[in-house]
Amino acid sequence: MLGKIAEWLKILVVLAFLWPVLVQCRGNIRHYKFNVMMTNVTRLCSTKPTVTVNGKFPGPTIYAREDDTLLIKVVNQVHYNLSIHWHGVKQLRTCWADGPAYIAQCPIQPGKSYVYNFTVTEQRGTLFWHAHILWLRATVHGAIVILPKHTLPYPFSKPKKEVVIILGEWWKSDVEAVVDEATQSGLPPNISDAHTINGLTGPVSTCSSQEGFNFLVEPGKKYLLRIINAALNEELFFKIAGHNLTVVEVDAAYVKPFETETILTAPGQTTNVILSANHKNGKYSMVTSPYMDSPILVNNKAATATLQYIGTNNSSTTFTVPPPRNATSTAFNFMDSLKSLNSKKYPAKVPMKINHSLFFIISLGLNPCASCYRGFRIVAAINNVTFVMPSVSLLSTHFFNKSGVFTDDFPGNPQNAFDYTGVPPQNLRTMEGTKLYRLEYNSNVQLILQDTGLLSPENHPMHLHGFNFFVVGRGKGNFNPKEDSKKFNLVDPVERNTINAPSGGWVAIRFRANNPGVWFFHCHLEVHTTWGLKMAFVVNNGNGPNESLLPPPKDLPKCF
């Protein structure tokens, strides 16, 4: 009897020792509440009513640890329909919480609420959340910080402090009014009036009293900067005077560390860098500025902020010159330096055997519009299909097997081949439809994204919901399957959720379709998404409940 008691005591001691680890593996439940409201915000010496979350611009940062479950109640107190997307969160089997309006859900109506319920699985790093309807994400956005498990430290030295830096754009006018005017005319919308760093522009010529973000550092210490591009329509450079940055992560995936003076980030992308405070004192300018290597109108105004060493008071600021707007070599050098960490703990699981080999051409076009300026409307397309948004949720339509809302015949290849980066065809008209592409569960996909010269070549940051992918190749001109495929990096390609299809070139990505649901794929330049540069993948259920989409939550918003 005493022997059995001793054995039970040993078991209890072991369980007491393991209990903290078991709790960490299960994760915690974290509750957040987002009150979406109108708030008067002053920028550029001008005040306007602005859609915000909890009265903040940018909105609150969500903190979680890997394996945590998040319950985020969103209450819509504005007159717009609303939905929130948790950009980069894989949403394994919880597509209902993904957020894009009319894709994964009907929007939250004014005066209504919805609880987004999802678990962060096999992810750690920096992501962000934003509105996913109309152009509300101009001011409705914020950071998501996913800390690693307690048992898995960072693969780099722990910094003294972590700082979120959100890059964005600001319009003095009502953004929705700007979009409505452009929609009626069929022409591009007005560009933004300023760029922002954590919601502030810094002093500008038209408003010298405008404050900027200020960041205090201690000499000799290291800091982790979590940089997010929340801009609507512009790729951005970022640099700090007198300091190099060590890149350690992009899109919540670790990379082989490398040092750089300037980073490039497209809308929807995140970049984590280590800053070494290697000066004794002083103030140093932080600057973000646009990157555009095509004849496209952009906002050329740089936003500034200040890095200040503790104990520095009245010293002058050391400034830096931003890269030229068309600094393609700087942009390409940065992108070419990105490689997956591909360590034992964080291997690069690149799909090798391909089940779906897709080739998507990205283009602009002109479709007839009797009420528009000059009788046509600028549109955008993938494989010459301009996506038409439905008036009900595609995910609900798929789950309940309803018909008449979408078809699953999206073309996997261009229907008419031409010299994509050469002389464009004379007919710039596109077909319109709500077409999806269907994938079997666990199938491996290779997707070539080819830019074209239709109207104008341009970079397109393409974002895939529900998955990360590996960027196995990139090049200029037209993709050559025989020659370019031989150069693919299948060992340590960078892992992302948003990637640039380069201006006048192509990019190749691979992913495994191991997440059932309806997953949006679109350009993260909001103007192009508005014009129809989007589609969606339908991923079928696999075998059994663990490979199947969960049922819809009871409070899922309805379309009226």
From TrEMBL:
CDD domains: CuRO_1_LCC_plant, CuRO_2_LCC_plant, CuRO_3_LCC_plant
Cofactor(s) essential for the protein: Cu cation
Gene3D superfamilies: Cupredoxins - blue copper proteins
Major subcellular location class: secreted
Binding note for cofactor: Binds 4 Cu cations per monomer.
Keyword Methyltransferase attached: no
Cell compartments where the protein resides: Secreted, Extracellular space, Apoplast
GO biological process, one term: lignin catabolic process
NCBIfam families: laccase (TIGR03389)
Signal sequence residues: 1-25
Enzyme class: oxidoreductase
Protein name (record): Laccase
Keywords on record: Apoplast, Copper, Glycoprotein, Lignin degradation, Metal-binding, Oxidoreductase, Repeat, Secreted, Signal
Protein family per UniProt: Belongs to the multicopper oxidase family.
Superkingdom as given in the UniProt entry: Eukaryota
EC number: 1.10.3.2
Record Pfam families: Cu-oxidase, Cu-oxidase_2, Cu-oxidase_3
Any one Gene Ontology cellular component term annotated for this protein: apoplast
GO molecular function: copper ion binding; hydroquinone:oxygen oxidoreductase activity
Organism: Solanum bulbocastanum
Enzymatic reactions: 4 hydroquinone + O2 = 4 benzosemiquinone + 2 H2O
Free-text function comment from the UniProt entry: Lignin degradation and detoxification of lignin-derived products.
InterPro entries associated with the record: Cu-oxidase-like_N (IPR011707), Cu-oxidase_2nd (IPR001117), Cu-oxidase_C (IPR011706), Cu-oxidase_fam (IPR045087), Cu_oxidase_CS (IPR033138), Cu_oxidase_Cu_BS (IPR002355), Cupredoxin (IPR008972), CuRO_1_LCC (IPR034288)
Limits of the Plastocyanin-like domain: 36-149, 162-311, 411-542
